[in-house]
What we know:
The radius of gyration is 17 Å and the shape is globular. Helix content is 43%, strand content 17%.
Amino acid sequence: MTTTNSIALVTGAGRGIGAATARLLAKEGYFVCINYRSDVESARAVALSIGEAGGRCQVIQADVSRETEVVRLFEAIDRLSGTLRVLVNNAGILKTQMRLEEMTAERINQVLATNVTGPFLCCREAVKRMSHRHGGAGGSIVNVSSAAARTGSPNEYVDYAASKGALDSMTRGLSLEVAAEGIRVNAVRPGLIHTDIHADGGEPGRVARLSERIPMQRGGEPREVAEAILWLVSDRSSYCTGSVIDLAGGL
Length: 251
Ligand code: NAP
C-alpha cells in the first residue's frame, strides 16, 4: 500500500498511544486525521509536532460514542484530498476502580458506548469507504484492545475488560466479513503502558505499582505499541488478518 495520498484516521490521537501512533504514521507518509474528544490543546500539540517533523495532518473533534459525530468525522475525511486507507480504533476509556457489584448502568453504558459502539461505528464507516465491494481501494483496520480482555480486571474495571473482549470478537468477525474485499482487520492488546488513562481509574501510579508483576519488570511506552500498529497497517503484514498482537512485556 503506497502512503502517498493515503489518509489514516487515529481515534483518540491527542494523547497516549493514539498520539504516538499518529506521529509514526505521519512519519511513514500518511496524511493523519487526529481525532480527539475534548482535550483540544493536546490534539493541537500532536499536530504541531507532526508538522514540525515535516508530516501532514488535520485535527478533527468527534466523540466516537455518538453516531452523528462519527458520521460527521468521516464526512470531514471525505472532503480531504486523498483516500482513507487506515483506521486505528484507539479511543478508549475506563472509570474509577471498583467491584462489579458497585457499578451503575450509566457507567457501564458509557464504557461500552466508547470502547465498543465507537469502534463498531468507525469500522462501519471505514468499510463503506475501503471495501472493494463498495468500489473502495482496500485498507487496514487496527483495534486497540487490552490485556484486560484476558485478565478480566477483577476489583478494578470488569466493564472495561469486557468491552475489550467484545472488541477482540469484533476484530475476528469483521476480519472474516471483509477478508476478500481488500481490508485487513487486526488488533493489539497492550498491557500496562505509561499514559494518563490510569489516572482516570483513580490510580496515576498504577503502572509503577504493578511493574514487579510484569515478567519484563517494567511498564511499556506508547511508542512500543505504536510500532506494532504501524506494522499491522503496513504491507509488511500483508498476509495477517483477524490476528491479535499482545504487547504486555510477557503478561
Ligand atoms: P489516554 O492517554 O487516556 O488517551 C485516550 C485518548 O482517547 C484521548 O485522546 C481521548 O481524547 C480519547 N477519547 C476518549 N474517549 C473518546 C471518545 N468518546 N471519542 C474520541 N476520543 C476519545 O489513553 P491511552 O492509555 O493512550 O489508551 C488508548 C487506548 O489503549 C485505549 O483504547 C485503551 O483502552 C488502550 N489501552 C491502554 C493501556 C494502557 O495501559 N495505557 C493498556 C491497554 C489498552 P481527549 O484527550 O479529548 O480526552
